[in-house]
Design goal:
About 15% of the residues lie in helices and about 40% in strands. It is of the alpha+beta class. The N and C termini lie far apart (about 85 Å).
Length: about 130
């Protein structure tokens, strides 16, 4: 009987030590905010895509996955968004949050950017018409 309890205790202790050494699944960080058009105008019809760009590495750009598709029908001046941040994001590195408004054929209509604040703070991006 005593040997059985010893083996049980040893196996529980071992499984506890093994689980300590395994990484804990991190909860996905989300950012939220609003996108508006310059001068309080209506956002033109098109689809919006959000990107995260490191200011330390200008060649890096990551498209963010939004919870719902960001589509403008040309009838609103502000759109709200919620997006997932990449898991490997360095919280101390400076990032820019970029929004691109494109027509259905891929033609860029407007673009806006803002410095990424703390992920738990609402972000605000203003779109400006792109001149060709």
């Amino acid at each position: 009987m005593k040997a059985r309890f010893s083996r049980l205790f040893a196996s529980l202790l071992f499984s506890g030590l093994v689980s300590i050494g395994q990484p804990v699944n991190a909860q996905t960080q989300k950012i939220s905010g609003t996108i508006s058009f310059a001068d309080q105008e209506l956002i033109p019809e098109g689809s919006l895509k959000l990107y995260l760009k490191s200011t330390a590495r200008p060649d890096s750009k990551t498209e963010l996955e939004t919870e719902t598709p960001l589509e403008s029908r040309g009838k609103t001046g502000t759109l709200a968004f919620v997006a997932n941040l990449p898991e490997a994001l360095e919280p101390t590195a400076p990032f820019q949050l970029i929004a691109r408004l494109e027509r259905a054929d891929g033609w860029l209509l407007a673009r806006g950017a803002a410095s990424l604040k703390k992920p738990d703070m609402p972000q605000e991006i203003t779109l400006y018409t792109v001149m060709y």
